[in-house]
Write a structure and sequence with these properties.
Elements: E1 4-7, E2 10-13, E3 18-24, E4 33-39, E5 46-52, E6 57-59, E7 67-72, E8 77-82, E9 91-97, E10 100-101, E11 105-110
Parallel strand pairs: 2-11
Antiparallel strand pairs: 1-3, 3-8, 4-5, 4-9, 5-6, 7-8, 9-10, 9-11
Length: 111
């Protein structure tokens, strides 16, 4: 059974950067799509970014031009590089592939 495990969250000041990692237990060559989602307190989980096996990427308007999703198939890992972070980016970030979700990693952005 494939499992996803996120890491890299933490506390950062507004304007700072973080890179999240999502390690897959099995080969991600089989994954057609890898994505990142986030959930802020009191809000529904929202989509952040997707990377298809073709290399095409899509981003939510709220993170476009600040976040970058990438994948390293040799390491079975997907990344989310987050720059120019804002307090409203504070959330638990989840990695996703199909029906599989990671446990989440908390990102807190202070003023």
């Amino acid at each position: 059974q494939v499992q996803l495990a996120e890491s890299g969250g933490g506390l950062v000041q507004a304007g700072g950067s973080l890179r999240l990692s999502c390690a897959a237990s099995g080969s991600i060559f089989r994954f057609n799509t890898m994505g990142w989602y986030r959930q802020s307190p009191g809000k529904q989980r929202e989509w952040v970014a997707t990377r298809f096996s073709t290399g095409t990427t899509n981003y939510a308007d709220s993170v476009k031009d600040r976040f970058t999703i990438s994948r390293d198939n040799a390491k079975n890992t997907v990344y989310l590089q987050m720059n120019s972070l804002k307090p409203e980016d504070t959330a638990v970030y989840y990695c996703n592939s199909g029906l599989t979700w990671g446990q989440g990693t908390l990102v807190t952005v202070s003023e």
